[in-house]
Specification:
Oligomer: single chain
Order of helices and strands: HHHH
Strand content: under 5%
Shape: globular
Number of domains: 1
Helix content: 55-70%
Length: 103
């Protein structure tokens, strides 16, 4: 498991459903890294790659990769969004900046 996922989950005290969602985001960004290329062919390739591991993903429904995580009321979706932002900031900074100090 990604050490950043572990660090973020620990610092934010994520519950199991939140942690699973963060782990899914981590895996999705590994197999289909975020790109600015939104050409139809690139979107179709990303969708197929993601669908191969997560069959419940059927369509992005947008002109860019868009994912939905189904969580029950009161699970802590706001905290999960904070975890996603932290994770994506780390992922972006770690690939674009040599001075970034990971968690």
């Amino acid at each position: 498991m990604n050490r950043h996922v572990n660090a973020i989950a620990g610092r934010l005290s994520l519950r199991p459903p939140q942690r699973r969602s963060l782990e899914m985001l981590d895996r999705i960004t590994e197999i289909a890294p975020p790109r600015k290329d939104t050409a139809a062919a690139a979107l179709a390739a990303a969708l197929e790659t993601i669908r191969s591991e997560f069959p419940s993903v059927t369509d992005f429904e947008r002109e860019f990769p868009s994912l939905c995580f189904a969580l029950a009321t009161g699970v802590g979706k706001t905290r999960l969004m904070g975890a996603f932002i932290s994770y994506l900031h780390w992922r972006t900074a770690s690939t674009t900046s040599s001075c970034w100090r990971p968690i």
